[in-house]
Fold:
Amino acid sequence: MMKSVMEKKNVDTQQTLIQTAQKAGVKLVACTMSKPRKWNTILAEVNP
Structure:
């Protein structure tokens, strides 16, 4: 659902947004109560 909304609004992909944030030095922290299981993989890649 989010992917289609982002495409309709002409927003970069989640992967691109994460990479841009990483290059800018942003540290991503997900709340353990709200993060989907996929976030564990994403955060491991972004914050090794």
User: Anything to note?
Assistant: The chain is about 55% helix and 0% strand. Residues 14-23 form the longest helix (10 residues). Residues 2-46 form one domain.
